[in-house]
Amino acid sequence: MNPTAASTAAARSWGDIAAIGLSIACLAHCMALPLAAAFLPMLGLGSDAVWVHWAFVAVAAPLSIWTLAWPPRGALRPLPVSLAALGLTALVMGAAGWPGHDLETPVTVGGALLLSAAHGINLRRRRHRC
Questions:
Q1: How far, rounded to the nearest angstrom, does the alpha carbon of residue 7 sit from its chain's CA centroid?
Q2: Are 66 and 12 in contact (CB under 8 A)?
Q3: I want to staple 118 with a disulfide (CB 3.0 to 4.6 A). Which of 1, 36, 75, 84 is the partner?
Q4: Which residues are within 8 A (CB) of 54 and not within 5 positions of it... i.e. 6 or more apart?
Q5: Residue 28 — very low, low, confident or very high, per pLDDT cuts 50/70/90?
Q6: Which residue has the higher pLDDT, 30 or 81?
Q7: For the chain, what are the domain ranges?
Q8: What does the pLDDT average to over 115-119?
């Protein structure tokens, strides 16, 4: 592997790690912030901010495309791409509040988990070069 390809692969591995971290932050927002808001009413003012959900989507989508569009060894794998597509769709649905406010959190959490799984698979393949 030439030095340029090695540095690109390392950058994409860090991209996968960053995407997994972003998914964890999204899960923390969806799960922990409402719980904390119950105990600290002032924190509840920002827990339902719609812009936060769109900010997660705005960062997650390009990061996912960047890391998953150029898979390890040049072979596009359908599993991580499919999981990421479903996860990003769920994140957009949650940010848009569709199909309803009651399902916003489960849809968003499911999307974050799917996206994290896609990047975990991609990272594992990249590290094992298979």
A1: 23
A2: yes
A3: 84
A4: 95
A5: confident
A6: 81
A7: 3-128
A8: 89
